[in-house]
Amino acid sequence: MTTLSNDFLLATPMLDFNHPKIQALITQRKWRDLPQYDAIGAIYHYVRDEIRFGYNADDRLTASQVLKDGYGQCNTKGTLLMALLRAVGVSARFHGFTIYNELQRGAIPNYLFVIAPERIIHSWVEVYHNERWLNLEGYIIDQAYLTQVQNRFANQCEPFSGFGIATKCLATPDIDWNGEGTYIQSDGIADDFGVYSQPDDFYARQGSNLSGVKKVLFRYLLRHLMNLNVNQIRANGVAS
Question: What would the pLDDT profile of 114-157 be if each residue is shown by its tens digit?
Fold first, then answer.
């Protein structure tokens, strides 16, 4: 049996899984009582579907803040997923990338797309299960939102890019936990920054997507407009 570094189980400033709200959630859901396979699946599907797809104020939010927000994107939902997994004793690590901005078109309205950098910082979570590391990325898009995009575009199994999705098959993407990797944006990856034990270290090195005036505008205005658009799609579907 492989002996893993304890680094993959640590709490960090971002992975603040000792926060009372996170501990209360774990106790309420009884995730510590489950076998590892079931615990990974229960936590994964919670983050995928009960933490809705949306845009937070910053990529570097703590897990407890993402839980409080109740929504997130690849980086912030990944922080919460890592924290919850580690809190129940499952080793998890961070893999950093960039993605091309075109896969966000539709989720980001066209009138706001000018602010999006060409390449956007992206990440997924790697979880250690059955003596191997598995990639988890399919948690980014909640099922309710995905279903609305599928209803509009998924006539058959074809590659699709847009609305926060980049997959070889929109009709049946690999998003359900079954002991293998899950993916929903992987076909839009541009750069691979490699694996980090802690997300804190990645963001200290790579920074965030926006700076200066654009960052302020995003935090206080633009992301709210983007979230209105995402919520509209989730509630009423994609306009023709």
Answer: 888 899 999 999 999 999 999 999 999 999 999 999 999 988 89
Output phi, psi for 237, to 5 deg: 90, 175
Phi, psi for 48 (deg, rounded to 5): -65, -50
Per the domain annotation, does 186 fall within a domain? yes
pTM exceeds 0.70 = yes
Measured CA angle at 82 (ends 103, 226), to 5 deg: 35
Check if the beta carbon of residue 31 is closer than 8 Å to that of residue 24.
no
Q: What are the helix and strand counts (H, E) for the chain? A: 8, 8
Whether residue 189 lies inside any domain: the answer is yes
Taking the C-alpha atoms of residue 29 and residue 43, their distance in angstroms, rounded to an integer, is 9
| Helix or strand holding residue 98 (H, E) | strand 92-100
CATH code, 73: 3.10.620.30
Measure the CA–CA gap between 79 and 76, rounded to whole angstroms.
5
**Domain enclosing residue 55, as ranges:** 8-236
Per DSSP, 182 falls in state B
Number of neighbours of residue 152 by Cβ within 10 angstroms = 16
Region of residue 11 (left: phi > 0; alpha: psi -120 to 50; beta: else) = beta
